[in-house]
Design goal:
2 copies of one chain form a homodimer. With 397 residues, chain A is of the alpha/beta class. Chain A has a 6-stranded mixed beta sheet, with no helix packed on it. Chain A has a 6-stranded mixed beta sheet with strand order 16-13-17-21-20-18, sandwiched between helices. In chain A, strands 22-25-24-26-28 form a 5-stranded mixed barrel. The first copy, chain A, has 4 domains: 157 residues, Molybdenum Cofactor Biosythetic Enzyme, Chain A, CATH 3.40.980.10; 58 residues, Molybdopterin biosynthesis moea protein, domain 2, CATH 3.90.105; 85 residues, Beta Complex (Molybdopterin biosynthesis moeA protein, domain 3); 72 residues, Beta Barrel (Beta-clip), CATH 2.40.340. Chain A contains 6 helices and 28 strands. Chain A is elongated and about 95 Å long. In chain A, helix 1 packs across helix 6 and helix 4 crosses helix 5. Chain A is 17% helix and 30% strand. At the A-B interface, helix 2, strand 15 and helix 3 of A face helix 2, strand 15 and helix 3 of B.
């Protein structure tokens, strides 16, 4: 059996980056920018008043209480063709373009009207006060956003300023979710004897949706080779297929057999991990296929630890490999010689990271995850990790 | 002028909690649960095999290498009516219901077929091995999810298990976004002399969208009282109106006047903050109206610091008031007697939080925010905060 570290490396090695597409700027938040973006103009494109006040010549204002003639009124959006001469000024609004020869702005609070045509400037002023100089934020043709970044609201604002309505981004992956199992019924049904409700396809859908991707959730598939084959055929146009159940060693675990007959190439069929040991990973053409163990916690953990990084790779997210280490609040013991991922409660206290496992009794215990905001990783060869030790943590929120 | 702390308190005091609604389980991730949820059944609803193997009576397996008769085959989803007698067993699959009188499961790996009807059990076994006991995860009528929590993928899984297809949640707020200004043109246009492109309504839309809410972004509104009145009338059915521009002291800043004439009650019209001092907050019926300064960084910061908490309150999010403190990497100086929110770069190093302000030259400098993942808060009365001091941080990512 391969280790979780090797499994992740093999998954990422077989995961391609998706193609580019152009999308509307209002849909681009959270997406990976596919090309460098240059500004088509200076920002601001002119010397701009930062205040409501008067545009003046600074050499008129070496003394306080100078009276100036008001030659015009400049609202935002207006371009004045007049030139401010000595002894003159223009009333100007925040965001408006300074008239020629004006080189400073005095705030309205620092002035006093004499009459409709004259204003007293109560203070002295130097050049460039209360104005934003042309191109001080961004210069024309300047590189403003580098390809590969994930677009946040502030970058969306920059794109708008630079006139990019259609944004070049990496495509989102198409993801298919399938639950298999003769024991499963849907959420709307009352399980009969021997049956339970399917929860995996709902939690998986939500894990994917949290990443901003609407997956296709298929109806429950019976443990029958033909039914499995039929559904898999439909999903081979997707980038990722998540199929839970039917990957173990039972008599009715057909999933892997069916996939092999369909020429899916399996990269691995087991991981030395708990929960989620029977996890299989295969590819056909460019479709990544994850066979997930049917237990809810297995499915949940395998998604967080293996599927999410694959989605990030497809979308060209530079996801941080940086590990978080937290101090264990209690001793933790384990049995098997596999790496364990245990549901845990992580917190920041006195500027330190602390973590403790939550009550958990096995890979079917989805309820334990409602108390967890993280997973702690107990290495393969550790059987007793002492309170106060530093331990690796995967954050869930 | 009121402090940012008082401003936030006044906003939250005037912000109601929204009503409940029922939505489909696949749309419920990220929403606030509006009612307590109880399980309609035991989970698991029966003693369930946790492995592929053989369901046996443990008192038959006090010695290794016992040979048992296989009386039937129990796939998942099947309910056996047979009783296992001494010397008998049933082949059983993971997830299947144990037959009567069987009290332990031996993994298939620990057995050897003698022939089609008999199996040798290679090891001893105790009661309750490799099985999940009825109701061990959740008991019928147990409280499983408490109202007020924000639904994560694991809770969506629990809802599915408990048969909740239509989920009671708090409604999402309806949010209207308006940019005003004669100087503004849309992203698709090339600004003429004196004009700039509107970025605020795009960055605000994305800040809202990041919270899972699709806002209504209106077209740019001119600095004309009638135009402003017309658009405000349209938005009074929204829960929040974000209107940027026109709230300052300029001759053409009509927004507040128009709102007052429309009987909007202003709670405050200024905050002692930088950037964003001219921020106004008013209410009409149940609509919250934020008048935002037109500068891009002001708008961005005011959203993060004041509008986001109001959205959380509407959705009944128990947002953590816990402050993050980080060590300053360099000295920071400021001038005005207002609280400053400066774009900053936050990181975790050697298990400590560190922060440093990014290059920033004023509230129009949206570009500075592309280097920022946080804001540092420099208190009103601090003028020189020394390197190594702990300072409050607002995280943006």
């Amino acid at each position: 059996m391969i280790s979780p570290e090797i499994a992740l490396k093999l998954i990422l090695k077989n995961t391609p980056k998706l193609d580019n597409e152009f999308i509307d700027i209002l849909e681009a938040r959270g997406r990976t920018l596919a090309r460098d973006i240059y500004s088509d103009m200076d920002i601001p494109p002119f010397n701009k008043s930062a205040m409501d006040g008067f545009a003046c010549r600074s050499n008129d204002l070496k003394k306080a209480n100078v009276i100036l003639d008001i030659i015009e009124d400049i609202p935002a959006g207006f371009f004045s063709k007049k030139i401010i001469k000595n002894g003159q000024c223009a009333r100007i609004m925040t965001g408006a373009c300074l008239p020629k020869a004006a080189d400073t702005v005095v705030r309205v609070e620092d002035t006093k009207f004499i009459d409709k045509f004259r204003v007293k400037i109560l203070k002295t002023a130097k050049k460039n006060e209360n104005l934003c100089q042309k191109a001080e934020d961004i210069k024309k043709n300047q590189l403003v956003l580098t390809k590969g970044i994930i677009l946040r609201p502030q970058e969306i604002g920059i794109l708008a300023s630079c006139g990019i309505k259609k944004v070049p981004v990496i495509k989102k992956p198409k993801i298919a979710i399938i639950s298999t199992g003769d024991e499963l019924v849907d959420v709307t049904q009352i399980p009969k004897n021997g049956q339970i409700r399917d929860s995996n396809s709902y939690s998986l859908f939500s894990q994917v949706e949290k990443l901003g991707i609407l997956a296709k959730k298929f109806s429950i598939v019976k443990d029958k080779p033909n039914a499995i084959k039929k559904i898999i055929k439909k999903t081979l146009k997707y980038n990722i297929v998540l199929i839970s159940g039917g990957v173990s060693v039972g008599k009715y675990d057909y999933t892997k057999d069916v996939l092999k007959k369909m020429h899916v190439k399996f990269i691995f069929e087991k991981i030395a991990i708990r929960p989620g040991m029977p996890t299989a990973f295969g590819i056909k053409n460019k479709t990544l296929i994850f066979g997930l163990a049917g237990n809810p916690v297995s499915t949940f953990v395998i998604f967080e630890v293996f599927v999410k990084p694959a989605i990030y790779k497809l979308m060209n997210y530079k996801f941080s490999e940086k590990e978080i280490l937290a101090k264990l609040e209690i001793d933790v013991k384990k049995k098997s010689g596999r790496t364990h991922y245990l549901p845990a409660d992580f917190k920041v206290m006195r500027n330190n990271f602390w973590v403790r496992p939550v009550r958990f009794h096995g890979s079917a215990d989805l309820f334990s995850l409602t108390n967890a905001n993280s997973l702690i990783i107990i290495p393969k060869n550790a059987y007793w990790v002492k309170k106060g030790s530093f331990i690796k943590v995967v954050l869930l929120n």
